[in-house]
Q: What sequence folds into this?
């Protein structure tokens, strides 16, 4: 039930016809896990908090470093050395005390991933490596939890929304675990923009309106200011979500 | 994989945005070939720097790259999937930063 405080705080977005009080109530009842609190995760959790998602879990296993501060906007210089989930949770609690923020200082592994995300309405990809993304992708498929993938490189970023069993998952696109990776230059603005697109997807998915980025990858190039789409198809042989699973 | 030799066909390669800068800003490049591997070789012959990004020292496709034909994954035949006139190849690059 929305309180008078909620109605005042979220007034401007409740005015959006497809959201309304009903959609705002759905956001309030929702639990979102933000996996990783770097450039993507900080911006994503900030806007989830602003939007009134009722419960946000923040998970990361790193501590704040000076080199994070060009993009990880919930960590300040005074937080250097602090555990990232706690540094972020403190700011979010001040921004919106009416929601629940749960900081978890833990490394996501194949063994604990399903337990960490269990019961959540969706998971936001705020991670910075292939391995953990594929672990979380697999856990989301196993738990039937939507997963909103985001990734960045320099001024380039990508987003797709994965609905387990219905749309292509990360392993449908990259069947073998990617080894080696490009060196990772990152501007602050790129993960911020991609994270906001992820939260836009999250709000629509949780409140039940709009068209989602399912079955397609949205690319952003900050170099040319182009957005382009790449259509994706579910792989029936996918080792994670395929119905045949004939291959590794 | 065996395929019948014939006249070379026109295929389009839609470049991942990271690769577009390496191809003079082009998003789509027309190539010829009977397989994905031949089409990529044609692309790489014109833009050698693309090869450095998508292949390892042994000439294998790097693991962060994936090849789609008409939006479908070609795994595990990324370099040997037959293509026909009018097909579109997408080169996907998985970016890990966050």
A:
């Amino acid at each position: 039930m929305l309180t008078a405080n909620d109605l005042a705080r979220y007034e401007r977005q409740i005015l959006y016809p497809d959201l309304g009080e009903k959609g705002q109530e759905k956001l309030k009842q929702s639990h979102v896990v933000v996996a990783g609190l770097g450039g993507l995760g900080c911006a994503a959790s900030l806007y989830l908090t602003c939007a009134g998602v009722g419960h946000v879990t923040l998970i990361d296993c790193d501590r704040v470093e000076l080199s994070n501060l060009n993009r990880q906007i919930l960590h300040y210089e005074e937080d250097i050395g602090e555990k990232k989930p706690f540094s972020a949770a403190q700011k979010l609690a001040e921004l919106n005390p009416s929601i629940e923020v749960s900081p978890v200082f833990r490394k996501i592994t194949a063994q604990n991933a399903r337990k960490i995300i269990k019961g959540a309405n969706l998971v936001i990809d705020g991670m910075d490596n292939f391995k953990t993304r594929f672990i979380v992708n697999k856990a989301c498929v196993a738990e039937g939890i939507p997963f909103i993938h985001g990734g960045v490189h320099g001024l380039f970023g990508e987003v797709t929304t994965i609905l387990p069993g219905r749309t292509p998952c990360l392993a449908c696109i990259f069947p073998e675990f990617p080894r080696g990776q490009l060196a990772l230059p990152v501007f602050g603005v790129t993960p911020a923009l991609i994270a906001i697109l992820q939260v836009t997807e999250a709000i629509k998915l949780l409140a039940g309106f709009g068209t989602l980025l399912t079955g397609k990858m949205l690319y952003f190039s900050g170099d040319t200011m182009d957005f382009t789409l790449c259509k994706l198809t579910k792989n029936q042989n996918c080792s994670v979500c395929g119905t045949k699973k004939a291959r590794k | 994989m065996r395929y019948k030799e014939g006249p070379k066909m026109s295929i389009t390669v839609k470049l991942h945005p990271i690769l577009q800068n390496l191809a003079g800003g082009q998003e789509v490049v027309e190539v010829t070939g009977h397989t994905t591997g031949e089409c990529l070789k044609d692309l790489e012959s014109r833009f050698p720097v693309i090869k450095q990004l998508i292949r390892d020292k042994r000439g294998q496709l790097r693991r962060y790259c994936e090849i789609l034909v008409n939006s479908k994954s070609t795994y595990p035949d990324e370099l040997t999937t037959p293509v026909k006139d009018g097909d579109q190849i997408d080169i996907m690059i998985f970016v890990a930063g966050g």
Remarks:
- Chain A is about 35% helix and 20% strand.
- The beta strands of chain A are 31-35, 55-60, 100-105, 122-125, 147-153, 156-162, 216-221, 226-231.
- Chain A has one domain: 4-231.
- Chain A touches chain B through 47 residues (CB under 8 Å).
